[in-house]
What does this fold into?
Amino acid sequence: MKNRLNKLSMAAAVILIAASITGCTKNFEKYNTNPLGLSEGQLEVDYQNLGAPLKQAQLFIYIANPAWAYQLQQNLIADVYSGYMMSPTPFQSNINNTNYYLVDGWNSYPWDWAYNNVMNNTDAVLKKATDPQFEAFYQWAKILRVEAMHRVSDIYGPIIYTHYGQINTDGSIDYDSQKDVYNAFFNDLDTAINVFTDMVQNNALPTLTNFDLAYGGDNKKWLQFANTLRLRLAIRISKVDPTRAKMEGEKSLSNPYGLLKTNDDNCMIDIGTNPNPVNVINESWGDIRLGAPIASLMNGYNDARISKYATKATDPAVAGQYIGIRNGINIDDHSRYADYSSMATFPNKVQLMVAAEAWFLKAEAALRGWSGAGDMQTDYETGISTSFAQYGLDATAYMQDASSTAQPYADPKAITPGQNDIATGSPWLSTITIKWDDNAGFEQKLERIITQKWISMYPEGQEAWSEFRRTGYPKLFPVVINNSGGTISTTDFIRRINFPADERSNNPIGVQKAIQMLSGPDNGGTHLWWNP
Amino acid sequence: MRKSITTYLTCIALVAQVFCVASLHAQTGNAYALDVKYAQRNNVSASTYKQDTQKQTLINVLKELNKSKGIYFLFSEKGIDQTMVNPIPENIQNTEKILQLVLKNSGLAYKKISDNTYVIVNDNQKKIAEINVNDLQTFITMKDMPGAGFLFDVISGKVSDQNGNALAGVSITIKGKTRGVSSGTDGSFKIDANEGDILVFSYIGYDSKEITVGQDHSITVALSETQSQLTDVVVTTALGIQRQSKSLTYAVQKVNNADLTTVQDANFINNLTGRVAGVTISKSASGIGGSTRVILRGNKSTRENQPLYVIDGVPLVNYSPVQPNDEFGQALGNVGLDGGDGISNLNPDDIENVTVLKGASAAALYGSSAANGVILITTKKGKAGVTKIDVSTSLTFDNPLYKEPLQFKYGQTVPMTSSSPGSLESWGSIVNAKDYVSDFFQTGLTSFNSIALSGGTEKAQTYFSYSYTDNKGIVPTSTLKKHNINFRETAKFFNDRLTADFNVLFLNQNAYNRPASGTYDNPLGGLYSFPRGIDFNQYKNYEMFSTLRNTNVQNWWDVNFDKGWNASEDQQNPYWLLYRNPSQNTLNRVYSNLSFKYKINDWINIQARGNIDKLYNDIDVKSYATTSPVLTAANGGYSLMNAVNTQLYGDLLLSGVKDLGENFGINATVGTSITDEKFSSNTFGTKTGGPGLSIPNVFVLSNIQPNYLSLSQDITHRQVQSVFATASLNFKKYVYVDISARNDWSSTFAFTPEVGKGYLYYSGGLNLVLSEMTHLPSFISFVKLRVSYARVGNDVSAYSTFPPNYYVNFDNSQPTTYNGAAPYPGTYLQPEDNRSFEAGFEFRFFNNKLGLDATYYQNNNYNQYLEVSAPNGSGYNTYFINGGNIRNQGVEVSINATPVKSSTVTWNTSLNYALNKNKIISLSNDQLNVGRSYYTLTGLGNLLYASDIIVGGSWGDIYGRFFQRDASGAIVVDANGAPLKGSDPNTQVGDEGQKYLGNPNPKYTLGWSNSFDIKHFTISFLFDGRFGGKVMSVTQAILDKLGDTKATQDARDAGGINIPAVYEDGTKFVGPLDPQTFYQAVGGRDGISEYYMYDATNVRLRELALAYNFPIKSNCIRNLRLSLIGRNLFFVTKKAPFDPEISMATNNGLQGTETFSIPSTRSIGLSLNIGF
It folds into this structure.
C-alpha cells in the first residue's frame, strides 16, 4: 500500500514536471527573437522605418559596396560594353563576358542585387508610407525604384515590376514585358513628379534630409532628377513609340522646375567612407583599365577631361600615353595589359546622373521636335561646357574644334600583332567632329549629341551602354574574339544579357513566359523592345 | 518578466518536490531493510544444534571443510590454527552457519572475503572491521602452517588488463574443480593449487585465460578485453543507461581506451577510423589539432550531418567557430582558417570507452540531432582501492606522407631581370632547378604527456589527470599546445544509497599558425608556384628594408614595394605569411558536471544531473603591411574574433530494473531534461582597399581607422525542454522489446502553433536471442536477430520562425539591412521528420572465437528545414520551408575472430565493412510549388569546384566545368589547340557551364585490425580503405596552368599530349596537343574541373604498434610498457595526388576537394606507459 502510494506520487511528480515544461515555454518567444534584428517599433524613431530602407536603396542602384558585387553588377557588363573600360584580367581563361561568353555565375548580380536591396526596400516603404503625412517618402521610393529598375530592364528586357510580391499558385511570379514596365515607370514618375511639384510649390518641409545621400533632402532637386529621368526614358523609347515618347518627354520639358541644370544638381550618391568601388577594382585588384574606344576619341579630340578620367600608361611599350584596352581581345596573362591606362581615382560618390546628360537629352528632344526642348545647339554646347565645368575645365576652344576625330587604335602588345588595331578609315573608327553643325543631317546631329553625351556620362557605363544600343553611337570597336557560339553578332554588338540563372531555377515558369515577350531567343543577340 | 520568474520558480519547486518524494521513499526502504536483518537474527538463534564438547584443533576442522566444501582459509596471525574449536555440526549445509558454530566461544571469528575464502581472526571487532581484501597477501596461508600437510600449494599472483591496470574481482578457478577465488582491488590473488592444475581467469568483458600451474608459484596474468561482443558485455546506451549488449535491438559498436590511446592522434575521434563500421571520418587539411568531420551512416541533411557527442550522459558542444567556405580558403573575412572543433578538446587518456550509436533507433532518446547518430563517451572514474598513478608519455615524429607532384626541370617563361620580376609561369627553357619544396617542410614533433591519479575507498573515489600535448607542425612556425586538467570525485552517502559524482574539466589550447587551405593566406600557394630557376633561398629572408616606408617590407620575387612590384594575392612569400601573417587560436573551456543518484530501493533509482560547458574561443590574425592588397589593408590588417559558447544542461531520471515474475523483466526510465545553449561572437577586422590601420603594423583594435573597421556580432540562443520514457521488456531474457518516446519543446518553434505541443520521437525494437530460445548445434555459441524502427524529429534554425524585416547594419552610411529570408509566405515551420529502420543479426561460433554482426538500415530524412533561394520577384531572397527526402541505405558487417589462442600467443582480428547509398529523392515541398531541384553547398562562382545536393543525385555531388566533346567523346579544341569548355543546356544546377563530375563519398569502406599477444609483446596494426568516390585537386589545376606540375613536365618531355581532339568544325586535330596551350586552357582556378577529378580509392596502414610489457617484480611499479608506434604509415594504394581523406572544411561545404592543403603526415614514435 505504502509502496503503491509512493509510485503514484512519483508518477504524479513526473506528470507535473511534464506539464510545467509547457509552462516554461512561455519564454520561448523571447529566446527566439533575434537580438540583431530590428522591430518595427524600434525603427519608428526618427522615421527610420521609412528612411533607412531608402538609404539602402540609394546605395545599391549602382552598388557602392562591396566592390566585387559592383564588379559583377556593372563593371564586367555595362562598363565594358559601353566602351569605357576593359579588364586586363583573362577571367576564366579569357572566356567570359568581355568576349561574349556570358558567364552565368556573373550575370545574376544586376538582377539579384537590385531586387534584394532596392525593390524590396522601396516596396516596404510603399506599403508603410500610405498615410498622407509620409507622402514624400512614398513618392521618393517610387523615383528611386524607377531609377534602379530601368537599369535592370535595360539589361534583360522584361522584368518583374508590377507583379512584384505576387506569388502565383504555381509558385511563379509574372514578368512585365519591357513595354509594360516602361509604361509603369512613366506612371510611377508621373504621380511622383506631381506630388513633388506640389511640395516644392508649397515649400514643404524637407523630411527626407536625414536619409538623402544625394541632395541633402532638397525636394526640388529630386523633382528635377525625376523630370530628367522621365526625359531619359522618353528618349529611350522614341524609336519604338514616338508618340508616347513625345508626350512623356514634353511633360518633363514643361515642368516648371525643369531638369538638372548645373553640376550642383548632379545626382551623386554619397557612399560615406566606403571607397568608390571602381577605385577598389582598379587600384587594389588591378581588374579594370580604360577602354580603347574612349581613349581613342578623347585622344583624337584632345579632350582635357581625359586626365580627370584616367592615368597614363606605365607599360614600357606605351608609357606616357592614354591608351585603353580593346574589348574582347586575346589576353594570356594579367600582366600583358596591367600597365595600360588605369582609371583615375574617383571620389567617394557614385554618379547616377549628371546635368550634362540633361542638356544632351534636351538637345535630342529638340532634334526630335519636342516642344519645350529649346535650341538644339545651345543645349548641345551647354552639355559640353557643363561637363567640362564638372571637372573644373573650360570647353570654349574644344567646342570650336571642327576637325578633330577619333585617333586610330594601335595595340603594340597584341599577342597576334595588329589583330587589335583599328586603323584610320576603319568603319569602326568614329569620324564625327565636335563643333555643332546646324546643317548636318539628323543622323549626324544625333551621332554628335550622343558621342558627347557618352563622354560626359563617364564612368557610369549602364546608361552609356543603353544609349549605344539605342543609337549605335558613339562608334565602338567590335570584339576580336566572339565566344557567344554564334548567338551574338560581332558587328551588331551585344544587345542584352540572358535571364539570370537564379531566375531560371527559382522562377522557371515565370522565365518561360518572359522569354515569349522577347523578340527572339533568350540570349545576348536579341534586341530589346526599345531597340528594334 | 515577473511571470517568467514565477514560471521558473514553479519549475524549481517541482523538481524539489520530486526530491522530497524520493527521500521519503528512501526512508521507508531503510526501515524495511532493518526488519529483514532482525528476522535473520531470530532465525539463527532459533536453529537447533547440538553442543559438542569434543573440541578439535582449528586446522583439522578447516582441513575437513576444505575437503568437503572446497573452501579455504587464511589466518590473520600465526598460531591461530592450533586453537581448539567445536567440531563440524551435522545437518547444516550453510558454510557461514557452520563456521559460526565451530568458532563459538573459541575467541576466534571469521570474515568472508570471497565466495570460498575466509579469513580467521582473533575475535576482535575492531580487527575484523580493519580486514580488507587488499590485505590478502599479508595473511598467512594454510600452507604456512607447520605440519598442516596440505594438499595444495599456494599460488599467488596479479591479474591486470593489457595495459597493466589491475583488475579487481577477476574470478580464478581451478579447471574441473569447484574451488575458486577472486582478485583483490590491486589485482592480487592467492589460490591453493597443485602443479599441473589449470587456473581459469575470467572476467566480464575480457577473454578468459587458462594457465597451467608450473614450478613458478608466482603468476602474472594479463587479460585482454573481449573483441567480440559477448552476451554479458555491458554497453552504455542513451542517457547513460547501462544495458547488456545482448538485449539491444539495434547495432552499437564500442571502442575501448586502448584503441584510442595505443597509437594516439591529437584528436582521439580520428582513432575510430576503420574500427567502427559505418563511420566515415574526414580530417581538415590543417595538420595536428585540426577539426574533424564524422559522419555515421551517410549524410542526411542540408544543415548538420555530424553526430551528437555525449559525455557521461550529457550532450557536448562540438562547435567550430569558423571553417573555410570557398577555394580561397576564406573563413574569417578573407582570412583562411580552420577554427578547430570541440571534440578534439578531450584528453584521450581520460576516456574509458566510446560507444557509437549509429542509428536513430539507438539515439532516439537524445532528441534533436539524434538523427545523425550519437557518439557516447564514458570517462574514467576513480576506483576503490590503492592509489594508482599512471604516467604515459609519447613522442612521435611527423613527416609528409606524400609530395605534391611538381616539376623543377623547366624554368620561368620570361626570366627575371633587374627591372622586371619576369613571368609567374614556368613554361620556359630547361633549367633543372633544385627541389626547394621538400626543404620547406620540417619534421613535425608531437609529444603527449599525461599523468592520472586515481584511488579512494569504497565510499569515495577520486580521479585526477593532467595532460599536456605539444606539437610542432610540419609547416615551420606552426605549433599546438594543449593542457587538460580533469578532476572527478565520486562519493556514496546514506548507506551507499546516494551516489554523488562531480567532475570538472579544464582545457587550455593554443594553436599558432594552424595551417589553412586555400589560395589566400596560405604559404603553399607561393611555395609551389614559385617560378622555377630563381634561387628560392634568397627569399628565406622574407623581408627587406624599404626606404619609402622606413621599415621592413615583404621580400619576394615579384613583390617589391620600392620598385612598385605587387604580386597577385596567391603569390606571397611563404615565410612572410608564416612570420608576418600569424594566426593564433586560443581556446579555454570549462566543463563541469554534478550528478546525484539515489537508490530508492533495490530496483528503482532517481538521478539528477546538472552540467555547464563554457567555451571561450579567441582567434587573432595579424597581417603586416605589404601583404597583398587583396588580402590586407595598406598599413596592415588585423582580425579578432571572440566567441563564447555556453551550454547549460539539466536532467532528472527515474529508472528501474526489475524481474516481473519468473519469465518477465523490465528495465525502464522516465525523465525530463532541459538544454540551454547560447552562442555569441564578436568579430572585428580591418577592411581591405584602404589604409586599414592608422599606424602600420600595430595590431590593437584602437589602431584600426574607424572608416576601415569592419565589425560583426553573432548571437544564437536556443532552449530545448524534454520529457521522455523508455522501457525494455524481456521474456525469459531471450526476447526483448524496446520502446521509447520523447517529446521536445524547442524555443526555435516560438511563434508557430508547434511551440505548445512540441514534437514527438519514438522508437521500437525487437530482439530475439535464438541461441537461448532453441537448441542449436554446439559450434554456434550465440545467435541474435534484431529489428528496430525510429522516428525522430528535429528543430529548425534559431530565429527562423519569426525573422525580423530589418537587421542593424554596421556600415557608415547605411544603418539597416533588409532581410529577405523568411518562412514561405502563408506557412509556418514544422519539425523535421527522420525515419529509420534497421535489422540485423549477430552470430558467434566456436565458443565465441568467431563472431559475425551484420546490419541493414534505411534512413529517410523528410520534412527537412531547408533554406531555399526564393525568386527575387517574390519580395524574398530566401524561403524557409520544410521539405525533401534524403535517403541513406546501407549495410554494415563486422567480423571478429580469435584464430589463435594459447597460453603464449593470442591473435585477435576484426574486419569492419560498411556500404552506404545516398539518394536525394526530393528537395522540395510539393504543396508549396517551390520550384527547387537543387541545393548548393558550395557555389562554383568563378572557380572549379561546386557541390550541390540535387534531386536524383547523392549528397555532396561535385559539379564543375567540363570539356566540350564531340559525339565520339573527343575533346573539342579551338584553332590554337586549346580545349574548350562544354555547355550543358539540360543542366539541373542552373548554370549550363556545370556538369556532374563525381561524388566524394566512398562506395564502401573496410577496416581490418589485428592484435597479437605473444608473451610480453603485443603487436597491433590496422589497415583501412575507402573504395570508390571521386575527389578534385584544385592545387594541380592551378599549378598545371603555371607549368609547375610533374604532369606538365611529362607532357613537355613527351613532346605533347595525345588525347583525341577535334576542331570546332569537326575536323580532326592531328598530332599531339601543345602542353602549354593545353594546360593554360585546362588548368587554373577557373579551368576545366573535369580534368582534375581523381579516383578517391585508397588503402593505408593506419596504425601499427609494437608494445613490450616489462615483467614487473617491483612492488612500486605496477606495470611498464614501451611501444613503438606508427600512424598513417603508408598507402597500399592511392590514386589521387593528395590524401582523399582530407577536406578543406569540416562543415558541409568543400567536401572532396583541396586547394594547397598541407600533405597528410606519417607519424612514427615511441610511447611509454608506467603504472605505479
Residues 49 and 96 of chain B are 14 Å apart (CA to CA).
